[in-house]
Amino acid sequence: MTFWKKRTSLLDPFGRTVDYLRVSVIDHCNLQCIYCVPPGSIPWTPKAELLTDAEIARVVRAAADLGICKVRITGGEPLVRPGLPDLIQTLSSISGIEEVSLTTNGTLLARCAQDLAAAGLKRLNISLDTLWPHRFRQITGFDGLDQVWAGITAAVSAGLSPIKLNVVVMRGINDDEVGDFATLTRGHPYQVRFIEFMPIGPTAHRWRDLFVPAEEILSRLEGAEPLTQECPEGVAHRFRLPGAAGTIGVISPMSRPFCGACTRLRLSADGYLRPCLFSGKGVDLKDPLRAGIPLRKLRLLIQSAAAAKPEGWMAKGGAIPEAVAQTMCEIGG
Ligand code: SAM
Fold first, then answer.
1. Minimal CA–CA distance to 252: which of 296, 196, 176?
2. What single string gives the DSSP state of each residue in 21-33?
3. CA 195 to CA 211: how far, in whole Å?
4. 77 C-beta closer than 6 A to ligand 1
5. Beta bridge partner(s), residue 239
6. Atom number of ligand 1 nearest to Cα 201
7. Rounded to the nearest whole angstrom, what is the distance from the C-alpha of residue 60 to the centroid of ligand 1?
8. 35 lines ligand 1 (CB under 6 A)
9. Ligand 1 pocket check: which of 24, 28, 36 to mutate, most ligand atoms within 8 Å of Cβ?
Protein backbone atom coordinates (compact mmCIF):
# COMPACT_ATOMS: atom_id res chain seq x y z
CA MET A 1 0.00 0.00 0.00
CA THR A 2 1.33 3.49 -0.84
CA PHE A 3 0.74 6.43 1.47
CA TRP A 4 0.47 10.00 0.27
CA LYS A 5 3.32 11.97 1.68
CA LYS A 6 2.11 15.52 2.22
CA ARG A 7 4.00 18.08 0.11
CA THR A 8 4.87 21.29 1.76
CA SER A 9 4.19 23.39 -1.28
CA LEU A 10 2.56 23.56 -4.67
CA LEU A 11 4.97 25.40 -6.95
CA ASP A 12 4.16 27.02 -10.27
CA PRO A 13 6.71 27.23 -13.12
CA PHE A 14 7.87 30.65 -11.88
CA GLY A 15 8.73 29.43 -8.39
CA ARG A 16 5.64 30.90 -6.72
CA THR A 17 4.15 28.84 -3.93
CA VAL A 18 0.45 28.41 -4.67
CA ASP A 19 -1.27 28.38 -1.28
CA TYR A 20 -4.58 30.15 -1.87
CA LEU A 21 -7.78 28.79 -3.42
CA ARG A 22 -10.77 30.93 -4.33
CA VAL A 23 -13.88 28.80 -4.35
CA SER A 24 -16.94 30.10 -6.16
CA VAL A 25 -19.95 28.30 -4.69
CA ILE A 26 -22.54 29.73 -7.08
CA ASP A 27 -22.48 32.00 -10.13
CA HIS A 28 -25.93 33.45 -9.39
CA CYS A 29 -25.97 36.89 -7.76
CA ASN A 30 -28.95 38.63 -6.19
CA LEU A 31 -27.61 42.00 -7.41
CA GLN A 32 -26.98 43.09 -11.00
CA CYS A 33 -24.10 45.53 -10.72
CA ILE A 34 -23.56 47.66 -13.80
CA TYR A 35 -19.83 46.85 -13.81
CA CYS A 36 -20.17 43.11 -13.24
CA VAL A 37 -23.36 41.37 -14.39
CA PRO A 38 -25.78 43.90 -15.86
CA PRO A 39 -29.37 42.54 -16.19
CA GLY A 40 -29.73 39.61 -18.56
CA SER A 41 -26.01 39.38 -19.30
CA ILE A 42 -25.52 35.75 -18.29
CA PRO A 43 -27.75 32.69 -17.81
CA TRP A 44 -27.15 31.17 -14.35
CA THR A 45 -25.75 27.67 -14.17
CA PRO A 46 -28.43 25.05 -13.31
CA LYS A 47 -28.13 23.61 -9.80
CA ALA A 48 -27.25 20.14 -11.10
CA GLU A 49 -24.18 21.60 -12.81
CA LEU A 50 -22.85 23.27 -9.66
CA LEU A 51 -20.37 21.35 -7.55
CA THR A 52 -22.03 19.87 -4.47
CA ASP A 53 -20.73 20.56 -0.96
CA ALA A 54 -19.13 17.10 -0.92
CA GLU A 55 -17.40 17.73 -4.26
CA ILE A 56 -16.08 21.13 -3.13
CA ALA A 57 -14.81 19.56 0.10
CA ARG A 58 -13.07 16.80 -1.86
CA VAL A 59 -11.26 19.34 -4.03
CA VAL A 60 -10.24 21.40 -1.00
CA ARG A 61 -9.00 18.26 0.79
CA ALA A 62 -6.84 17.33 -2.20
CA ALA A 63 -5.62 20.92 -2.52
CA ALA A 64 -4.78 21.06 1.19
CA ASP A 65 -2.69 17.90 0.77
CA LEU A 66 -0.68 19.86 -1.80
CA GLY A 67 -0.11 22.88 0.41
CA ILE A 68 -3.17 25.10 -0.12
CA CYS A 69 -3.83 26.64 3.31
CA LYS A 70 -6.14 29.60 2.58
CA VAL A 71 -9.61 29.36 1.07
CA ARG A 72 -11.83 32.28 0.10
CA ILE A 73 -15.49 31.60 -0.64
CA THR A 74 -16.95 33.76 -3.38
CA GLY A 75 -19.41 33.74 -6.26
CA GLY A 76 -21.82 35.08 -7.66
CA GLU A 77 -23.26 35.86 -4.28
CA PRO A 78 -22.16 33.02 -2.00
CA LEU A 79 -24.88 33.67 0.59
CA VAL A 80 -27.52 32.82 -2.05
CA ARG A 81 -26.32 29.21 -1.78
CA PRO A 82 -28.34 27.36 0.86
CA GLY A 83 -26.40 25.85 3.76
CA LEU A 84 -23.22 27.90 3.33
CA PRO A 85 -22.35 27.79 7.09
CA ASP A 86 -22.28 23.97 6.92
CA LEU A 87 -19.90 24.07 3.95
CA ILE A 88 -17.68 26.59 5.74
CA GLN A 89 -17.60 24.37 8.82
CA THR A 90 -16.56 21.40 6.68
CA LEU A 91 -13.83 23.36 4.88
CA SER A 92 -12.54 24.93 8.12
CA SER A 93 -12.07 21.50 9.65
CA ILE A 94 -9.95 20.14 6.78
CA SER A 95 -6.43 19.43 7.95
CA GLY A 96 -4.02 22.03 6.56
CA ILE A 97 -6.67 24.72 5.95
CA GLU A 98 -5.71 27.59 8.22
CA GLU A 99 -8.19 30.21 7.10
CA VAL A 100 -11.59 30.30 5.41
CA SER A 101 -12.77 33.77 4.39
CA LEU A 102 -15.74 35.10 2.43
CA THR A 103 -16.47 37.80 -0.14
CA THR A 104 -20.10 38.92 -0.15
CA ASN A 105 -22.28 41.83 -1.15
CA GLY A 106 -23.64 41.76 2.41
CA THR A 107 -27.35 41.92 1.52
CA LEU A 108 -28.11 38.52 3.08
CA LEU A 109 -25.51 38.70 5.83
CA ALA A 110 -27.64 39.93 8.75
CA ARG A 111 -29.51 36.63 9.02
CA CYS A 112 -26.45 34.38 8.98
CA ALA A 113 -23.44 36.32 10.37
CA GLN A 114 -23.60 34.45 13.71
CA ASP A 115 -23.83 31.06 11.97
CA LEU A 116 -20.90 31.90 9.71
CA ALA A 117 -18.74 32.94 12.65
CA ALA A 118 -19.73 29.81 14.59
CA ALA A 119 -18.85 27.72 11.51
CA GLY A 120 -15.27 28.97 11.61
CA LEU A 121 -15.32 31.85 9.13
CA LYS A 122 -12.29 33.98 9.85
CA ARG A 123 -12.56 37.04 7.65
CA LEU A 124 -15.07 38.91 5.60
CA ASN A 125 -14.87 41.23 2.58
CA ILE A 126 -18.04 43.15 1.82
CA SER A 127 -18.48 44.82 -1.56
CA LEU A 128 -20.04 48.24 -1.17
CA ASP A 129 -19.66 50.82 -3.92
CA THR A 130 -21.73 53.69 -2.59
CA LEU A 131 -23.03 55.19 0.67
CA TRP A 132 -26.13 56.63 -1.04
CA PRO A 133 -29.37 54.60 -1.26
CA HIS A 134 -30.41 55.98 -4.67
CA ARG A 135 -26.96 55.26 -6.07
CA PHE A 136 -26.99 51.77 -4.62
CA ARG A 137 -30.09 51.17 -6.71
CA GLN A 138 -28.48 52.70 -9.80
CA ILE A 139 -25.37 50.54 -9.47
CA THR A 140 -26.92 47.26 -8.34
CA GLY A 141 -30.49 47.43 -9.65
CA PHE A 142 -31.93 46.93 -6.14
CA ASP A 143 -32.78 48.90 -3.00
CA GLY A 144 -30.47 47.13 -0.62
CA LEU A 145 -28.19 49.58 1.14
CA ASP A 146 -30.00 49.23 4.51
CA GLN A 147 -29.66 45.46 4.26
CA VAL A 148 -25.93 45.76 3.66
CA TRP A 149 -25.51 47.99 6.72
CA ALA A 150 -27.59 45.54 8.77
CA GLY A 151 -25.22 42.83 7.54
CA ILE A 152 -22.13 44.82 8.48
CA THR A 153 -23.56 45.49 11.96
CA ALA A 154 -24.42 41.80 12.41
CA ALA A 155 -20.92 40.80 11.30
CA VAL A 156 -19.36 43.14 13.85
CA SER A 157 -21.65 41.74 16.60
CA ALA A 158 -20.69 38.21 15.57
CA GLY A 159 -17.04 39.11 16.13
CA LEU A 160 -16.03 38.84 12.47
CA SER A 161 -13.01 41.05 12.18
CA PRO A 162 -11.52 42.82 10.35
CA ILE A 163 -14.37 43.95 8.11
CA LYS A 164 -13.03 44.94 4.71
CA LEU A 165 -15.23 47.12 2.53
CA ASN A 166 -14.37 46.75 -1.17
CA VAL A 167 -15.22 49.75 -3.35
CA VAL A 168 -14.80 49.55 -7.14
CA VAL A 169 -14.15 53.16 -8.10
CA MET A 170 -15.83 54.25 -11.36
CA ARG A 171 -15.55 57.64 -12.99
CA GLY A 172 -18.78 59.59 -13.03
CA ILE A 173 -20.53 56.90 -10.99
CA ASN A 174 -19.06 56.84 -7.49
CA ASP A 175 -15.61 58.48 -7.71
CA ASP A 176 -16.95 61.49 -5.83
CA GLU A 177 -17.44 59.25 -2.75
CA VAL A 178 -13.77 58.40 -2.20
CA GLY A 179 -13.52 61.02 0.56
CA ASP A 180 -16.75 59.88 2.26
CA PHE A 181 -15.59 56.28 2.33
CA ALA A 182 -12.27 57.39 3.78
CA THR A 183 -14.10 59.39 6.47
CA LEU A 184 -15.90 56.22 7.48
CA THR A 185 -12.59 54.82 8.75
CA ARG A 186 -12.25 57.60 11.33
CA GLY A 187 -14.74 56.17 13.81
CA HIS A 188 -14.88 52.53 12.68
CA PRO A 189 -12.12 49.94 12.39
CA TYR A 190 -13.15 49.09 8.82
CA GLN A 191 -10.56 48.50 6.14
CA VAL A 192 -11.93 50.43 3.18
CA ARG A 193 -10.27 49.20 -0.02
CA PHE A 194 -10.55 51.13 -3.27
CA ILE A 195 -10.24 48.80 -6.26
CA GLU A 196 -9.47 49.77 -9.84
CA PHE A 197 -12.15 48.81 -12.33
CA MET A 198 -11.04 45.94 -14.58
CA PRO A 199 -12.20 45.27 -18.16
CA ILE A 200 -13.94 41.99 -17.49
CA GLY A 201 -17.16 40.55 -18.92
CA PRO A 202 -19.95 42.42 -20.68
CA THR A 203 -18.89 45.80 -19.26
CA ALA A 204 -15.30 45.62 -20.53
CA HIS A 205 -16.09 48.04 -23.38
CA ARG A 206 -16.84 50.75 -20.76
CA TRP A 207 -13.40 50.43 -19.22
CA ARG A 208 -11.84 53.52 -20.81
CA ASP A 209 -14.70 55.71 -19.58
CA LEU A 210 -15.01 54.26 -16.09
CA PHE A 211 -11.42 53.52 -15.10
CA VAL A 212 -9.92 55.67 -12.31
CA PRO A 213 -6.23 54.89 -11.68
CA ALA A 214 -5.03 54.26 -8.12
CA GLU A 215 -2.78 57.30 -8.34
CA GLU A 216 -5.77 59.55 -8.90
CA ILE A 217 -7.68 57.94 -6.03
CA LEU A 218 -4.69 58.52 -3.75
CA SER A 219 -4.18 62.10 -4.87
CA ARG A 220 -7.79 62.87 -3.99
CA LEU A 221 -7.27 61.43 -0.52
CA GLU A 222 -3.94 63.14 0.02
CA GLY A 223 -5.40 66.44 -1.17
CA ALA A 224 -7.78 66.38 1.79
CA GLU A 225 -5.42 65.32 4.61
CA PRO A 226 -1.96 63.81 5.10
CA LEU A 227 -2.09 60.02 5.10
CA THR A 228 0.32 57.81 6.96
CA GLN A 229 1.48 54.70 5.17
CA GLU A 230 0.83 51.33 6.82
CA CYS A 231 2.30 47.91 6.04
CA PRO A 232 0.81 46.62 2.78
CA GLU A 233 -1.64 43.76 3.28
CA GLY A 234 -1.78 41.21 0.49
CA VAL A 235 -2.36 43.14 -2.72
CA ALA A 236 -3.48 46.36 -1.00
CA HIS A 237 -1.28 49.39 -0.34
CA ARG A 238 -2.58 50.70 2.98
CA PHE A 239 -2.87 54.13 4.53
CA ARG A 240 -4.48 55.75 7.58
CA LEU A 241 -6.02 59.13 8.21
CA PRO A 242 -4.60 60.84 11.30
CA GLY A 243 -6.04 59.14 14.40
CA ALA A 244 -8.44 56.97 12.38
CA ALA A 245 -9.68 53.64 13.75
CA GLY A 246 -9.64 51.97 10.34
CA THR A 247 -7.42 51.92 7.29
CA ILE A 248 -7.68 52.81 3.63
CA GLY A 249 -6.35 50.41 1.02
CA VAL A 250 -5.78 50.88 -2.68
CA ILE A 251 -5.73 47.86 -4.99
CA SER A 252 -4.39 48.54 -8.46
CA PRO A 253 -4.60 45.47 -10.72
CA MET A 254 -4.44 47.67 -13.82
CA SER A 255 -2.02 50.51 -13.10
CA ARG A 256 0.35 48.57 -10.82
CA PRO A 257 -0.28 44.92 -11.66
CA PHE A 258 0.61 42.38 -8.98
CA CYS A 259 0.42 39.21 -11.09
CA GLY A 260 4.05 38.47 -10.22
CA ALA A 261 3.03 37.83 -6.62
CA CYS A 262 -0.11 35.81 -7.45
CA THR A 263 -0.34 32.58 -5.46
CA ARG A 264 -3.98 31.76 -6.30
CA LEU A 265 -6.01 29.15 -8.08
CA ARG A 266 -9.73 29.67 -8.68
CA LEU A 267 -12.38 26.97 -8.59
CA SER A 268 -15.50 27.98 -10.51
CA ALA A 269 -18.97 27.01 -9.30
CA ASP A 270 -19.27 24.56 -12.21
CA GLY A 271 -16.03 22.84 -11.31
CA TYR A 272 -13.25 24.32 -13.45
CA LEU A 273 -9.93 25.05 -11.80
CA ARG A 274 -8.55 28.22 -13.33
CA PRO A 275 -4.83 29.03 -13.09
CA CYS A 276 -5.34 32.78 -13.51
CA LEU A 277 -8.17 35.32 -13.57
CA PHE A 278 -7.28 35.99 -17.19
CA SER A 279 -6.73 32.42 -18.36
CA GLY A 280 -9.40 30.38 -20.13
CA LYS A 281 -11.83 28.09 -18.31
CA GLY A 282 -9.09 25.93 -16.83
CA VAL A 283 -9.00 22.28 -15.81
CA ASP A 284 -12.34 20.45 -15.56
CA LEU A 285 -12.68 18.78 -12.17
CA LYS A 286 -16.44 18.20 -12.16
CA ASP A 287 -16.58 15.36 -14.70
CA PRO A 288 -13.65 13.52 -13.10
CA LEU A 289 -15.20 14.02 -9.64
CA ARG A 290 -18.52 12.62 -10.85
CA ALA A 291 -16.70 9.70 -12.46
CA GLY A 292 -15.16 8.85 -9.05
CA ILE A 293 -11.59 10.05 -9.64
CA PRO A 294 -9.22 8.78 -6.93
CA LEU A 295 -7.66 11.41 -4.66
CA ARG A 296 -4.20 10.81 -6.10
CA LYS A 297 -5.38 11.68 -9.63
CA LEU A 298 -7.35 14.66 -8.36
CA ARG A 299 -4.13 16.01 -6.86
CA LEU A 300 -2.44 15.56 -10.25
CA LEU A 301 -5.18 17.66 -11.91
CA ILE A 302 -4.69 20.38 -9.29
CA GLN A 303 -0.95 20.27 -9.90
CA SER A 304 -1.58 20.61 -13.64
CA ALA A 305 -3.59 23.81 -13.01
CA ALA A 306 -0.74 25.23 -10.89
CA ALA A 307 1.73 24.24 -13.64
CA ALA A 308 -0.36 26.23 -16.14
CA LYS A 309 -0.16 29.49 -14.16
CA PRO A 310 1.12 32.19 -16.51
CA GLU A 311 3.79 34.55 -15.30
CA GLY A 312 1.17 37.29 -15.46
CA TRP A 313 -0.99 38.75 -18.19
CA MET A 314 -0.93 42.24 -16.86
CA ALA A 315 2.79 42.15 -16.13
CA LYS A 316 3.38 41.61 -19.84
CA GLY A 317 1.92 44.85 -21.07
CA GLY A 318 -1.68 44.63 -20.01
CA ALA A 319 -3.16 42.83 -23.03
CA ILE A 320 -6.37 41.22 -21.79
CA PRO A 321 -7.10 37.94 -23.56
CA GLU A 322 -10.53 37.20 -25.00
CA ALA A 323 -11.36 34.63 -22.33
CA VAL A 324 -12.26 37.45 -20.02
CA ALA A 325 -15.51 37.78 -21.88
CA GLN A 326 -16.73 35.86 -18.82
CA THR A 327 -18.04 37.93 -15.89
CA MET A 328 -16.47 38.00 -12.43
CA CYS A 329 -19.57 36.13 -11.23
CA GLU A 330 -18.87 33.25 -13.62
CA ILE A 331 -15.16 33.17 -12.87
CA GLY A 332 -15.57 33.64 -9.12
CA GLY A 333 -14.45 37.15 -8.21
N1 SAM B 1 -21.12 38.78 -4.70
C2 SAM B 1 -19.90 38.91 -3.96
C3 SAM B 1 -19.53 40.36 -3.78
O4 SAM B 1 -20.26 41.23 -4.25
O5 SAM B 1 -18.53 40.59 -3.13
C6 SAM B 1 -18.74 38.11 -4.52
C7 SAM B 1 -18.56 38.09 -6.01
S8 SAM B 1 -18.12 39.62 -6.74
C9 SAM B 1 -17.97 39.14 -8.43
C10 SAM B 1 -16.46 39.77 -6.15
C11 SAM B 1 -15.82 41.10 -6.34
O12 SAM B 1 -15.57 41.32 -7.72
C13 SAM B 1 -16.61 42.28 -5.84
O14 SAM B 1 -15.85 42.98 -4.87
C15 SAM B 1 -16.80 43.11 -7.09
O16 SAM B 1 -16.80 44.46 -6.79
C17 SAM B 1 -15.59 42.71 -7.92
N18 SAM B 1 -15.73 42.99 -9.35
C19 SAM B 1 -16.65 42.56 -10.21
N20 SAM B 1 -16.45 43.05 -11.44
C21 SAM B 1 -15.34 43.83 -11.36
C22 SAM B 1 -14.61 44.62 -12.29
N23 SAM B 1 -14.98 44.70 -13.56
N24 SAM B 1 -13.52 45.29 -11.85
C25 SAM B 1 -13.12 45.20 -10.55
N26 SAM B 1 -13.77 44.47 -9.62
C27 SAM B 1 -14.87 43.79 -10.03
1. 196
2. EEEE--S--S---
3. 10
4. yes
5. 229, 248
6. 23
7. 23
8. yes
9. 36
Instruction: Give the Å distance between the CA of 328 and the centre of ligand 1.
Output: 6
* Centre of ligand 1 from the C-alpha of residue 63, in Å: 24
- pLDDT 10s digit of each residue in the chain, 333 long? 445 555 557 999 999 999 999 999 999 999 999 988 877 777 889 999 999 999 999 999 999 999 999 999 999 999 999 999 999 999 999 999 999 999 999 999 999 999 999 999 989 999 999 999 999 999 999 999 999 999 999 999 999 989 999 999 999 999 999 999 999 999 999 999 999 999 888 888 888 899 999 999 999 887 767 889 898 778 888 999 999 999 999 999 888 888 888 999 999 999 999 999 888 789 999 999 999 999 999 999 999 999 999 988 655 555 555 446 678 888 877
What predicted TM-score, i.e. pTM, was given to this entire model?
0.94
CATH 3.20.20.70 is right for the domain spanning 20-331? yes
Using a 6 Å cutoff on CB, does residue 200 contact ligand 1? yes
Residue extents of the structural domains in the chain: 20-331
Q: Going by CA atoms, what residue is nearest to atom 15 of ligand 1?
A: 127
Q: How far is CA 3 from CA 188, 296, 303, in A?
A: 50, 10, 18
Contact indicator for 173, 139 with CB cutoff of 8 Å? yes
Dist. CA 105 → ligand 1 center (Å): 9
